[in-house]
Design brief:
Elements lengths: L2 E9 L2 H17 L3 E5 L16 E6 L2 H8 L5 H10 E9 L2
Antiparallel strand pairs: 1-3, 1-4, 2-3
């Protein structure tokens, strides 16, 4: 069963965030993730609950694989770069 890691990001320091992106991509791919969207243009059709800023969607084989990536020791220092330079909301959703 497929799962999706979805991150909405408000970048506060673009130069440092570029470092995060460069480091995160190979880790995502090593963990079996496939980028389905990476900050592309948004067409917000309804926003009663929240107004997305920059969405990233990564497909993983299943929920366990997505959680393992998000909590991994390899990703932790890279995630710290993201957290220091952006505000984020991250969810993992079952794709069944």
């Amino acid at each position: 069963m497929t799962a999706y890691l979805i991150v909405d990001t408000k970048i506060e320091n673009a130069d440092e965030y570029e470092k995060y992106k460069a480091l995160a991509k190979p880790l995502v791919e090593k963990a079996g993730g496939i980028y389905r969207a990476r900050g592309g243009a948004l067409d917000v059709v309804e926003n009663e609950l929240w107004s997305p800023v920059r969405l990233v969607i990564v497909e993983f084989p299943d929920m366990e694989t997505a959680r393992t990536f998000a909590d991994s020791e390899d990703y932790a220092p890279v995630k710290a770069i993201r957290n220091a330079n952006a505000k984020c909301t991250t969810v993992i959703v079952d794709g069944t």
